[in-house]
User: What shape does this take?
Amino acid sequence: MAVTERVTEAATLLLEGEACSGLGEGASFTALDWVRREFLAKLGFEPYPGTFNLRMGGPEWESARRAMDAEPGIVITPEPGFCAAKCFHVVIGGCITGAVVFPEIAGYPGDKFEVISAVPVRQALGVTDGDRVAVSVVC
Assistant: This one.
């Protein structure tokens, strides 16, 4: 009897966004013990304190967002009192690996692309607010 295996290839979404400052809450969130454990176990790295934010828009973003919404992603399981999140592996600026995090909370901005990485992305790329940054998302 032959065994067949369903093999699915990951899709890569190529996007571009505008670097922007966040609310400053990422550093305290990524410093939480349970968050660091979840990211290390499920994404393979401990996050640098804080996040790198891009503002996204346009038809390519809308299409990519629908595609990511339809995928299971990598689920971050919260401790009580915190929200769950869905992540996807990314490459930012063609050279830095990390993950985009979509917190599962009402009212989360539809144009926000929040990246965690093991390195300080903004400094590593030398970008400032308003700079355009390429990102590849693996889903």
In short: The longest strand covers residues 12-20. Residues 1-7 have pLDDT under 50 and may be disordered. The first helix runs from residue 26 to 30. Residues 13 and 63 are 10 Å apart (CA to CA).
